[in-house]
Design goal:
single chain, about 325 residues, alpha/beta, TIM Barrel, eight-stranded parallel beta sheet, three-stranded antiparallel beta sheet, 13 helices, 13 strands
Length: about 325
């Protein structure tokens, strides 16, 4: 893929090269730390255990740009590794840690402003505080934030998160939702490595449906919100949800707008690993709602995020929409 391609990747993650020691008062046992394991890799230590070994592409701007040029990505949207969202912290600790992670993102964007845009993190365990931190991030030039699908087991469609979503709509902030700590892990038979591949899709569906059934998307029609991994299993659940809505007065009292209509104003990344599945998402959600996503630089992502898109017989306008036009609209980039 030529380095001149202009695709915008809305789903890529960072981990800071260094994290300062915990200095709060609420107990810092789960405060992440970075521990070097060789010249190019570090362990992300949480609660004294290695959560994940990550490479220097997580923080090295030159290495990221080299990978982007090799795969046709013009711009990466940087967001925290989801586990760093750290919703288990006391709110004030979450603010302190978030500023470390957000600072790392801001520094990377500043070093290559034409190649990167930033989505930060906010302490969603305190929705009012999250709204205030979002205001600060937007003043500092971030395009919006990444959030998890749930906060300590509470789906993001719960009314307690209303202050945050109201602020996101008012401020014009993009919200990227990534699966986090999925439900029903006790149903998985096999090693933990299965979790992102088997459990994340269902978790993302729960989050989207909660925003529909909880009324968040109805109350905030101008909210720009995107979902990782093609929206997970939501694409196959949507027709069932729409059928239930069509035949059930109880659901119509709860959900005021046809779920299919709501689904077609949300954004979804293309990280589904198969051209046929991308085609299905285009047909279901519309050509203008899909954005390129890779999950760079993690090995569960797609190392060639444009490959499957290239197999589709798209018009020049449709290809331009998925490659960059839709992402610019999601991010409010002129």
């Amino acid at each position: 893929m030529a380095a001149t391609a202009s695709a915008i990747d809305i789903h890529s993650h960072i981990v800071p090269a260094e994290i300062p020691p915990y200095a709060g008062r609420h107990g810092g046992a789960r405060w992440p730390q970075m521990a070097a394991c060789d010249a190019r890799h570090k362990n992300v230590m949480i609660d004294g255990r290695n959560f994940r070994t990550v490479g220097d592409a997580c923080w090295d701007v030159a290495r990221r740009v080299e990978a982007m040029d090799a795969t046709g990505i013009g711009v990466q949207v940087l967001s925290p590794m989801p586990e760093l969202l750290s919703y288990w912290f006391a709110p004030k600790d979450a603010v302190a840690f978030g500023r470390t992670v957000n600072g790392a993102i801001a520094e990377m964007v500043a070093r290559a402003p034409r190649r990167f845009a930033g989505l930060g993190m906010v302490p969603l365990q305190d929705s009012e505080l999250a709204a205030r931190e979002l205001e600060r991030l937007m003043r500092d030039g971030f395009r919006g934030v990444e959030i998890g699908t749930n906060v300590n087991g509470v789906a993001i469609g719960d009314p307690r998160f209303e202050p945050f979503f109201a602020a996101a709509e008012r401020l014009g902030a993009a919200v990227f939702v990534h699966a986090l700590h999925p439900a029903s892990l006790e149903r998985i038979v096999g090693p933990p490595r299965l979790v992102p591949f088997v459990a994340f899709p269902g978790e993302t569906n729960f989050a989207i449906c909660s925003l529909i059934s909880g009324g968040t998307l109805e109350r905030h029609p101008k909210l720009r919100i995107a979902f990782s991994h093609g929206g997970g299993t939501f694409a196959v659940v949507l027709p069932r949800l729409a059928q239930g809505w069509a035949i059930s007065p109880v659901l119509q009292e709860t959900i005021k707008i046809d779920p299919r209509e709501t689904a077609r104003r949300l954004y979804y990344d293309t990280l589904v690993f198969e051209a046929k599945t991308i085609r299905f998402l285009i047909e279901l959600f519309g050509i203008n709602q899909l954005c390129v996503g890779s999950d760079f630089p993690f090995d569960g992502g797609d190392p060639e995020p444009l490959r499957e898109l290239g197999k589709l017989d798209l018009s020049a306008d449709d290809r331009a929409a998925i490659y960059e036009g839709n992402a610019k609209r999601f991010l409010a980039i002129a």
